[in-house]
Write a structure and sequence with these properties.
The chain is mainly alpha-helical and about 120 residues long. The protein has a domain at about 50-105. The chain is built from 5 helices and no strands. The longest helix is centred in the middle third of the chain and has 37 residues, at about 50-90. It is rod-shaped and about 120 Å long.
Amino acid sequence: MQAPNRDDARGPEAVGETRVVGPFARAQAFPVLILLLTLLTVPFLIFGDQGLQRVDRLEVELEQIRLENGKLEARCRELRRRLEAYRTRPGYLEDVARDELGLVRPDELVLVFPDGK
């Protein structure tokens, strides 16, 4: 029997042959590549213009819209109250015309006083 050659004991790299990467080694490299890409892109997504700064701007805008919405709801309630008064109180329209438009009846006398001290 012949003794093993020293070059055979080192493997194919020692002889000058290239090592072929199998599908298992490629399958292990793919998740590592995805992890590296994720670690590089996530900070840009979080701290970039479309990240946390945009979230802060949108929260401020949302608060302003909520305040405006509250004011509009109060105005809507006031207008509904006035509409109901127009429908139910017969003299309400006349009162509003007198107060807001300064109207008077033909038989009334209007006295205008100058601003004096």
